[in-house]
Amino acid sequence: MNKLTHFNKEGEAHMVNVGEKPVSHRIAVADGRIRMQAETLKLIQTGGHKKGDVLGIARIAGIMGAKKTSELVPLCHPLALTSVEVEFDIEQAPIAIYCKATVETHGQTGVEMEALAAVQVALLTIYDMCKAVDRGMILQDIALLSKTGGKSGTWTRKP
Asked: What total number of domains does the chain contain?
């Protein structure tokens, strides 16, 4: 692909017409991380945070983020998602929480944006819940890992 699809012949922004595309099973996986102080991670792990289960709430927020993507990204199609999975892992060097989101649908357009939104909203929720104790947290390395389905088939990020 060597042209931007969200612009018409006149160069105006528009929503891509997917009406004639065949329905296919589509999956996208994205990931990212949030770096933080060791004390912040300990609060999250021990459940010592006043606001409650940080990762549980962030998981729900990530799912909601995937579902609301078309309301946040102007030219994104609203999709009927069939599955959204948000996972977290603790990383020790550097200290961070890793997030991976897997999003699925049977549709006429892909779910890459929904997977990326899920990761970002989940990580933003961790930031929001922990900013009172650590304003220096850093969201980083948010990227699409893979996508399957549709005309372009399978794509996987190269290491």
From this structure: 1
- 128 catalytic? Reply is yes
In Å, how far are 11, 35, 57, 111 from 79, measured between CA atoms?
A: 26, 31, 23, 8
Active-site annotation holder among 31, 53, 128, 134: 128
Sign of CA dihedral 49, 53, 59, 61: negative
Residue span of the structural domain in which 46 resides = 24-151
Residue 95 lies in a domain: yes
Is pTM, for the whole model, over 0.85? yes
List the CATH number of the domain containing 113: 3.30.70.640
Helix (H, G, I), strand (E, B) or coil at 28: strand
What is the amino acid identity at position 104?
E
Phi, psi of 125 (to 5 degrees): -65, -40
Render pLDDT for 7-56 as a digit per residue (tens, 0 to 9): 567 666 666 656 567 789 999 999 999 999 999 999 999 876 666 799 99
**pLDDT tens profile 48-75:** 666 679 999 999 999 999 999 999 988 8
